[in-house]
Structures are given as C-alpha cells and as structure tokens.
Records
---
Amino acid sequence: MGCCFSSEGGDESVKELAERSQITPNETAASASEMVVNLDPRHVEFISNHGLERLVQGKLFTYGELYAATGGFSDHLFLGEGGFGQVYKGMLDATGQEVAIKILNLQGNQGNKEFFTEITVLSKVHHANLVKLIGHCVDGDQRLLVYEYMPLGSLKSHLHDLSPDKKPLDWDTRIKILVGAAKGLQHLHVNADPPIINRDVKSENILLGEGYHPKLSDFGLAKLGPTGDDTHISTRVMGTLGYCAPDYLESGKLTVQSDIYSFGVVMLEVITGQKVIDDSRAKTERSIVEWAMPMINQKDFAKLADPVLNGQYHMRSLFRALIVAAMCIDRTANRRPDITLVVDALTQISESQSRRKRWSSRLQSTVASNASSAEPREDQGESS
C-alpha cells in the first residue's frame, strides 16, 4: 500500500501519515514533491506556506476501502466520466454514507495536477453551494477523491435528452438553481483571497442535491486569480467548448470575467433548454450564443423560452433573466457584470416570482372564500 493523506480530527504530520502507511517520512515527502511538480507556481507557494498535511483535509481512505465501497468499481455504480477521471457512486462501510468517488487519470501528469488543485481549492473555501470534499487517497499510482453524493445528478442531465420518467425543471426551480450556482461562484471570486477562477463553469459541473439545491463541482482546472496591480493571469487555454470566453480563447488571458461568460452560457442553457453546441443547428448558429443573441437583440424573448415549459413562466421574469445572460456573454470582458451584480439580479428575479406566487395564492383563496359565502344555504332556499 502507498500513502493516503488526511487531516481528519485535526492536522496530522507527514511522519504520522507515513507511519499509518508503513513507509518512511522521506518516502512520503518525495511522493508529495513528485505530485506537486508542474502545478501552478502559486498553488505550490500556497501548499508551501500552509503545509501539505494541513491542506489535505477530510478522511483518510485506503484504496481497498474505496474499492469495497463501489463494489469493485462496478459498472452499475458508474456515474460519469470527465476530462481527467471516472466517477462512481459508493457507500462507505463504516458509516453507510453515500459518496461519489473520482479516480483520477494520471496520464500526462494532468491527473496529479487536478488532484492537488481540487485539494487546495476545496480546503481553502467552504460554502453551501460548493460540493464538499469528504476525503481522498494516494495509494501507489492511484489518486482518488471522495465527495458528498448529490442524488439528483447534474444540471445538464435535467436539461437535455430527458428520459420519459424525468419531469422537466419548472421555471421557478431553474431560477433557484441559477441563484445558488451564482452564489457558489461569488464565494470563489469575492471571499477567496486571492480570488479563485473556476475555469470550467458548465451545466455538467453544477450538481443537484435534495430540493434541487445546486453546488459547483470539479475544480481541477481552477486557477488563483490576479492580485495587486495585475489584471489577468496568462495560462494555457483549457475548459469546455462553447463555454469558454472568446477573449480567453484568443489571448490566454484569464480573469474572473472568464467565469462570468461561462455562467452566462449556463444561463442561456437553463432558460432555453438548448444544447451549448448543437451540430443540428445552422453552421452560423452551432453555439448557443450565436443562436440566441440575434433573438435577444430583436427582443424575441418568447422564442427563447424552453418549449417544455409550455408557457408556464412570467414574461417579465424571462426578459430580466435573458438580459442578465446577455450582459454576461458580452464579447468584451470589462463590460461583463461582476458576480455580485449577477447574484443580486437573479435574487431579485427569484423574490419577485415568490411575491407573485404569494399574491396569486391569496387572490385565489379570497375568490374561493367569497364564492363560498355567496352560495345560498339549503335552508334559505327552502324558506323562500
């Protein structure tokens, strides 16, 4: 067995971790050093400043424990596959807790980079709209991450190619999901210091818990944002086709506004139900942005609503949501709103919907009550 890092119940020293793994402290340090190679230099500095054993949070798992939790990584527990690994559903024997277990693909060193990036990000920030890292394992050449299980799956799975037994998301739920996802992004951009740029905001990485509570997930491509007088960081372009900001694609200059563009694309996806890239659309409309912007500019808002909604939305709410999305996908980065403005705008949309529903409910109740009191009683009818 190799080493598994943990700080459950408090920080554990490298020596203690080594003793638990039956290898020497020097071997542990060497293994950690190898994994840090080729990370973002500022991630390396962050690890150095805080101490690896303090950063690695959550429960320590052996490979055998996670193998057992997934029934030997059984096909019927397979949840999906990302750019750098496969994800399985599991149940921990010790607690009975359901979890999601990601096995990192270490080819080309990207798996190691993603492993440490996820750990540094999820150990640095905690929020109700960010997925929780429960634990991890480093066992020989195996790198595994263990997350809380999100029972309703990804937002993407509720928007596209719905199975007959899956009910489409209603309008209120869509706005609720957008508000929560925006708050998660706000925590990364505003509360983290330096800010954290997700770099892979997309519907597949927004996971849903009970009550459609959204959480951002998959921080393997995240970068620490610019500090001081710097306006951007220069980096190799990575992300997902259709979600990447055009300015980032063209220049490699990454800013928090790159995430804002991606979130705007997610908003269009949620509002319209359209796929982000669709080869069945005309060549000039393959991307959802190219497809939607002409209709937004012409104010053909009703044409943009997801047909499965069957008109069950308030037109003003649709209009306001589309305007926010259009601002987010502005081709010029410095014209995009910051995430706090996006959160405020979406919250106002959500609250106005709640007020309308309460007013409508009271009105219906009043009408029903008045109708009931206006009906003649049987004894009154007989006496007349």
Note: The longest strand covers residues 85-91.
---
Amino acid sequence: MANFASLDITLDRAGMGNYSKLDSTIWAEFFENPDLFLEKAMDIAKNYSYAQEDKDADSTRGFREGGEYEVVSKARKNQDYFREMVLAAYNAKCAITGI
C-alpha cells in the first residue's frame, strides 16, 4: 500500500517512489469513478474463496446491512499515557513507515 501513498497528493510525505504504471492506472481509475471501481473489484473478488457471498445477505452491491450488538471488553489502565509516550518518541508518526 505504500506504493499508493506516493500517488496520494493529500499526504505530506512522499511514500515509496517505486510505484508502477499499473499502480498509477489503478489509482486514477479509482478516483475517476469509485463506484464502478468497487463493482469491478467485487466481481474479481467473487472468484476467490474468501469472497463467497452469504446466501441470506443483502445483495445490494454485496454489502450486508449494519447493526449493533453488545460486547464486553477489557481496557488497559493508563493506555492513554502509554500512547502519548509512544507518539512523542516517534514524533507522532508511524514507527514503521514514518507516515
């Protein structure tokens, strides 16, 4: 995905400079018509086992209707302090990509 970052003019960082002509074509096609691009991507994904549709799912563009459910979760104490320290150590940038 870092190759697409180099094509994103909204980012203040360059991303990887070794994007291909295909990356550039895909990027342009997406922004010219996102809905058509999504439809094409979903058609391609149907050929893979991980993208099999649920027979009961809403067939509108392959999306299922959202909903709510309750969950019980645990949270770390002082997580906000830890997060602030990590962000400060890396100047509020990703430690891996620097973005």
Note: Residues 89 and 95 are 9 Å apart (CA to CA).
